């Protein structure tokens, strides 16, 4: 995969990995939770991740697998390094990263913080990818970003509810 220009197919492959990590995290964190509300939310989010995986794989069938050669952008190397750092963050690298993260969860507050961080990281990654994708494939990212924003809103809402209860 080219480190500077990505095709829609490349982005879909990354998105599926992200969603698989999210599914593992939400499943394991939900299983470990003692709060019915948190369990319910993580079950919902896990189901959403499954739906996203299926949806993204279907979207991917419509995109070419070719990548684009690097552009003559003077900031191309810096952009590639930045995207590489984002792609190598805890959310995007190893297939079992979601499982590893879930094992470190002590309570519902921890679970929500990690989940919110994962959603924010995903959104940031997709926004940055928009800068290096060919124009015709950017609609993929718009769809991905909107889905992740919905997750972030639900998680933030639950975090606010739980923090009000603890006051």
Could you characterize the architecture of this molecule?
With 167 residues, the chain is mainly alpha-helical. The protein has helices at residues 8-32, 36-60, 76-87, 97-103, 108-130, 138-165. It has one domain (8-65, 72-165): Ferritin, core subunit, four-helix bundle (Ferritin, Up-down Bundle). The protein is 72% helix and 0% strand. Helix 1 (8-32) packs parallel to helix 4. The longest helix is centred in the last third of the chain and has 28 residues, at 138-165. Mean pLDDT is 75; it is low at 66-72.
Give keywords.
167 residues; Ferritin; 6 helices; 72% helix
CATH topology label: Ferritin
The helical percent reads over 70%
Separation, N- and C-terminal Cα atoms: 49 Å
Give the low-confidence spans: 66-72
């Amino acid at each position: 995969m080219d480190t500077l220009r990505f095709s829609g197919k490349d982005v879909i492959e990354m998105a599926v990995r992200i969603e698989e990590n999210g599914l593992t995290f939400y499943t394991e964190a939900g299983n470990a939770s003692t709060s019915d509300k948190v369990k319910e939310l993580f079950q919902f989010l896990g189901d959403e991740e499954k739906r996203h995986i299926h949806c993204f794989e279907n979207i991917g069938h419509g995109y070419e697998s070719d990548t684009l050669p690097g552009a003559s952008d003077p900031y191309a190397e810096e952009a590639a390094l930045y995207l590489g750092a984002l792609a190598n963050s805890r959310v995007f690298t190893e297939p079992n990263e979601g499982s590893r993260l879930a094992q470190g969860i002590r309570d519902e507050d921890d679970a929500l913080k990690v989940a919110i961080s994962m959603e924010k990281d995903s959104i940031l990654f997709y926004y940055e990818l928009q800068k290096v994708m060919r124009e015709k494939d950017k609609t993929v990212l718009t769809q991905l970003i909107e889905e992740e924003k919905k997750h972030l809103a639900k998680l933030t809402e639950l975090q606010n509810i739980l923090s009000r209860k603890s006051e």
